[in-house]
Amino acid sequence: MRIPLLLLAGGLCLSAEAPAVTWHGALWASATATDRDTPDGSLFLRPLDASAGSFALDGVQLSADVALAEGWAFRFTALGGRMARNLNLASGSSHDGDLAWPEAYVSWTRGADTLKAGRMYTPLGMEVLDGTQTVTASRGLLFTYALPFAQVGLAWHHAFSPSWSADLWVINGEDRLQDNNRGKTVGLGVTWNRGGSPDHFVTLMGFTGPEQDGLGASAGTGAEGRKRSRVSLSGQWVLDRLTLQFEGDAAREDLAPGTLVHGGLRDRATWNGAGLIARYRLTEAWALFGRAEALNDDTGLRLACDPTLAAVLPPTQGVDLQATAFCLGVERRWKQAFTRLEVRRDALNFKVSDAAGRTFKDALSATWQVGASF
């Protein structure tokens, strides 16, 4: 990470005064139960969430915002718990423990422009790793299977007006802490905010670049030329007590021959999904929430992250999987602390087996979550 460190050093040299530091923290934990007993104890189509019958620390997060001088700033976030382990596994990190650093970037702002360099959360989708900032108690299908968590590289933001802005990204790859090929993934985004309001916005983004191993012992021939491309649409609209969030993503990736069962000389995987998230505030303390999602995966390459499915179905050309998830819940808040109770149903158009060998295609689960931010 030479570029961020050099830029940070340059920012520190701009002022002899001690920089101002603002701290932010959050922690969240959950307990789950389900009507399906899977072979490894995981929740069906919910591999990121706590295992069935357990109470787990999903995440504890501490962030530091350091204001330097003349528009320079630095942000660092340390993340612990189950979500840290998920992030490490997704990023290809040699460290697979329960401690990760999803953010470590230096930024420079002047006028309508902001430039960031380092590691930062992905702009894709409406869900984030910080469970205190999400609407629901469980993780959605798009967050789990379709979208990355974080990225390393450069990000440039330009505001044309209070209502219109654009973003440009040049990154190592989706979730990649260290680049695994010689190419870069590039992205472009356009956002419309109604009247400049952060409560009413729509964002359209597109990313493309090589994501497969082109370096090291696991390098594949032709990996640099096989790209993953995606188009993503997301947004939010607040109507008095009701908050609506939506997200949609469509992607494809060329694969090495032989990656897919029944594949051809040029294997290709495609997937797409959409979700709607709603929260209705009953009082200052109580709220209802819900989410509805569908994810289509023509080869099972993305849904193979679910261990119950991966045990019976390798990525296969033309399998045309469709997963759906619906949840409803209630939230109680005490200023910065909260608790949520959620009931969720997941379904798949393909039979899998439970621990006793019985086949099923859907599962009902319940999640109790507690958390606080400070």
From TrEMBL:
Transmembrane residue ranges: none
Keywords, comma-separated and alphabetical: Signal
Signal peptide span: 1-20
Gene3D superfamilies membership: Porin
UniProt-listed InterPro entries: BBP2, Porin_dom_sf
Pfam families: BBP2 (PF07642)
Protein name: Porin
UniProt source species: Mesoterricola sediminis
